[in-house]
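User: Continuing from earlier, I have the next pair ready.

Assistant: Great, send them over.

User: Here they are, in order.

Assistant: Folding the first of the pair now:
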Amino acid sequence: MKTKIKFVLQAKPENTPGWPHINFNYRQAADQMLSVMQARMPEACFDTLITSDEQGARDSFASDRENYDGLVLITATNNPTLYHAYCDLADTQFPVIIADLPHGGSGAFLNAATRVYKENLPVGLVSSMDYRDLAETVQIIEVLKELKENKILIVSDNPDNPFFSSAKREGLEKHWGVGCVIKNSADVFSLYDSIPLGQAEALADRWLKDCIRPVEPDRAEIVRSAKLYYTLEKLKEQEGCSAVTVDCLSLFYGNRMKAYPCLAFFEMLNNKEVGICEADVDSVLSALISRYGFNRPGFVSDPVIDTSSGQIIYDHCVCSSRMSGYDDPRSCEYYIRSHAEDQKGASVQTLLPLQQPVTTYRFNTDCHAFCIHSGTAVGNVGLDRGCRTKLAAESNVRSIMKNWNMDIFGWHRVTVYGDWRDKLMNLARMKGMRIIEEDEGRF
């Protein structure tokens, strides 16, 4: 179903002097913005209203919530003050964004921004001469709608695993509209033997052909990983799920898995799907947001701080080879390796792009909190400790170390290529989350 967005321009009555100027062509300005937003969201439907009626905005808000997936107000003049209506009425269940038409309603916009920050209002904000920034922010409304169409398959034999606690699952449902289905290892391997060997061998041979070379695993191990990929896909389909996370370490260490899911998740992430290790639903949510918001996979990792180099190194044994985005034909080279901690099974060591901005973040579903930091990718680390893929990024690592909150966010973070900080901060604010900027401040 298409995303429906109400697009409101705060305008002056005819023949009224003031910013942007008397008898400004608001329709033309609206059309210019809409053309950029429609290019970013070709499936979305925009209904435009050019108005000076603040009371009308208040009176129609209840019906707007029923008829639209979100609302955008453009402060295209300083008076009237429609932004007060939307600041007063906004909540975390109906996305509201206030954007400036620079040199049009900038005073009104800054008044709105003052209220949003001072009162911690769940309102997105954007002020840019580049309408692509507006379009990226408005696309959050589409992301939030698409998230509600998702259900996460959790595979674990431990119902007390804190990574998918009842509080986290309730938070996913309440705040994001994302449901969960829990299955155990027996459910997985009741399907495992039904996967045709030839199908698994074909996928394994493609991985072997595409990789630089396999280092530790033999072909039989890689075929088992391919068979697990098709098993998880089949179970997802049976349960109506779009994403999966597996309690892989405890299951494999306990001899309740026939293969690690690292290569299975590698394949899913390359195919615009989300497969995440360790039964970690917070990372699944964060990766889904990368998928829908940035059209590229996220890299879930255990970060390491190195103050000697000013780098943070993101370690893990699962990483897509399509980190530059699903519309980008480039693919990263990779080795097929054993899983690092126990030197068993099969995983992937991806050589990631360098000298590019990266954004690292995590959404917490039970504490309703969000953390973020930014950096520049500078190296692929080959050290034979920790996990297989290691991406080094330059950042304000001493502040990250100081602001790190293991109690709320744990160790995992999700890294995505590109500078997505503003968009993610707006999304978190619109959901009413506590926000921690990990790289802010001084050590």
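And the other member of the pair:
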Amino acid sequence: GDFNSGLAACRTAERRLRELIKRYDIDVLLAGVQRNLERSETRMRAQIAKLPDGEYFYEDYLETFGPSPEYRLEPLLLPLRLTVTGETLTADFTGAAEQAPAPVNSTLAVTAASVFITLKSIFDPTQALNHGSFRPVSIIAPEGTIVNVTHPAPAGSHGEIRKRVIATMLGALSHACPELSSADIHRTSFHNLIGGVDSATGKEFVHYEWSSGGNGAFLEADGPSSMAAIDWGDLCTVQSAEVMETRYPLHVHWTRQAMNSGGAGHTRGGLGTRRALQLTRGQAQYSLLADGAVVPPFGILGGESAAPVGSYMHEDGEDRPFPTPGKVGGHPMQDGDIIVLQSAGGGGYGDPLTRDPEAVLEDVIEGYVSIEQAKQSYGVIIHNEQIDHNATVTQRTQQKNQRHRVRLTGPATTSLYEAIGRGQKRVARLHPDDAAAINVVDDQMMELLGSRGAPIRAWVRVDTAARVGHLELDARGYEMLRVAPDQEIQIRPLFRPQLS
């Protein structure tokens, strides 16, 4: 289908080019093409020139897992150095994890396209797309890595690496142009497949579901909910229940936007989608290729993380997760089994304690945010669909005063990354008192927040040898947060909302 569509598009383009040549002649056509390319290049150069010259950094992870029975998380590091010089921009992915023997690697074409998608969406979304827009942009993606795969490693999962490259771009640009950037999008294309032989017809079937998620909040407004991200174009991502139930032995129990799934912020991230599917006859197998099930979408400028991706077998009234979140291969399903699919939300933008209480109340009334999260994340006290303004002022003051800050030391002379299988992850060594202050335990994820931009994610190491009230940071960490040694930063646990 995709191949034939592409072939048809090429044939249509050829026919129309011949019509233009016949009407205007080849020289006029080529001159027009050149003028359009130059016009787009000029527009993009003008936008890049508005950014402050300098280097901007961010890092993120692709999720892979080791073998059974441990199924330990082996995150693949993806660092980005974004350099702005006058009217040109370079995206450098040097240091990206080595290519893996799993379908998580990307070709250079997908990596470059992901950079271009972000820049075009942020800087010049209304102008027609052509190669001229990308002439001022350079990509460095070392061969043999997850962003430039070579033989014999498999290439695939381009929707996952594409969104991860977009995430690193958003993280870096949140320092360069926070007024134009959004928080992180919903992390994954979320490829769910249920297939088998329909016992009623004897025919094979495969249902492919790519549930849309929430998109990142931005300066002017909340992020869109249950909507395709910027790299998907105008794809329909919420499949019709009636069509699905007619074609396959499946029943849609319910589909809804997931309460509390959008990242809290001055503007709120968009909500993800939850859907429950039941196999109505026979047997089938369920498979999933996704990302962002462990490391969720991030907020920026103090905004909170959104809900991660999830899929669960619904048994005995409970949602039971798979041992490898986001990665499932051929899980058997029997007649009557129910699987729950949860796409990620979008990250929040700005401090949640500055969100208009009336907007929080509206979110509660509409079912986007629970009363409990209104208090926990936004500091807004609501009773009987009314705001208690005095209690809200008190609650917000209390929550702001309880934010835990540590003084930075370093830069560290030894690596702050721990190797784990084929992956590695950043660790933060906290004194037990600091760990208790933010209510985290060993190997739990936490965030380090500067005054601007996106947070650093790290895995906690509770260490009695660490200095209380202090945190050692490496050179890359200082570059990402754009802070200096001896400054104070806020630390907090990675937010995990309760969904419904």
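Worth noting for the second one:
Residues 404-493 form a domain with the Barwin-like endoglucanases fold (CATH 2.40.40.20). The first strand starts at residue 54 and ends at 62.
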